[in-house]
Amino acid sequence: MAGGALKYRHLSRKSSHRQALLRNLVTSLFTHESITTTWHKAKEAQRLAEKLITLGKKNTNASRQKAESIFFEPLRLLPHLFTTLRTRYLNRPGGYTRVLRIEPTNKHYDQAPSAILELVDGPKDMRFLMTAKTLVRERTTDEGIREITARNVGKVTRYRPDGFEELEREVKRMEAKVGDQAFREKAKWKVEERPREGHGERQPWLGGGKKNRN
């Protein structure tokens, strides 16, 4: 109907090709927990992924048959959907996926807007990792934890089992990683300052020539 609202994006494909594309995207999403694609494809695949997780939470014969008809690899992904993901999102009322805008990945071609489509509360949850990284940085400042960071902590841990404990473990892991990196940088600097064997005096790090020999 002219002037009507757009119900879905055609993605410049005919119906059969569009459905095959979306099925492939959600199969990759449930396999890897996170995928990178264009913004418009991510938004359309998000709708199908949300429906699949709703089918998994219903856990009926009809929902299994419907999910089996969508996945390209149903034998491998159906157990994951109806066990792991069903348990993960059992108490979450909605919002099982997240789309994050990123810089265009095809910079030398069409400059199409790109995005990351991910399953929330999973091992690759970008917001969870970014919140942990922010906590590591703000705990070392005099201002302490900001209010917006405290709200984000509540969001990323609300429906995650043992969310606060898992977030704290991730923060400690990042703090240890930062400490190890600082130690390696300090050790590298000491090695660079050490006199080189067989050359009497220490050679400059930049532009130093070999000692003249008679």
Describe this structure in words.
The structure is a single chain. Helix 2 packs across helix 4 (74-88), helix 3 packs across helix 4 and helix 5 (126-138) packs across helix 7. With 214 residues, the protein is mainly alpha-helical. Strands 1-3-2 form a three-stranded antiparallel beta sheet, with helices on one face. Residues 202-209 have low confidence and may be disordered. It is globular. The longest helix has 31 residues, at 163-193. It starts with 14 loop residues before the first helix and ends in a 21-residue tail after the last helix. The chain has helices spanning 15-32, 39-58, 61-70, 74-88, 126-138, 147-157, 163-193, and strands spanning 34-38, 97-102, 114-119.
Rounded to the nearest angstrom, the radius of gyration is 25 Å
Q: For the largest sheet, list the strands in their spatial order.
A: 1-3-2
Give the H and E element order: HEHHHEEHHH
Cα shape = globular
Percentage of residues in DSSP E strands: 5-15%
Mean of residue pLDDT? 84
Give a short account of the largest sheet.
Answer: 3 strands, antiparallel
Please tally the helical runs, counting DSSP H or I stretches of 4 or more residues.
Answer: 7
Subunit arrangement of the protein: single chain
Coarse structural class: mainly alpha
Helix content: 55-70%
Low-confidence spans: 202-209
Number of strands: 3
Distance between the termini: 93 Å
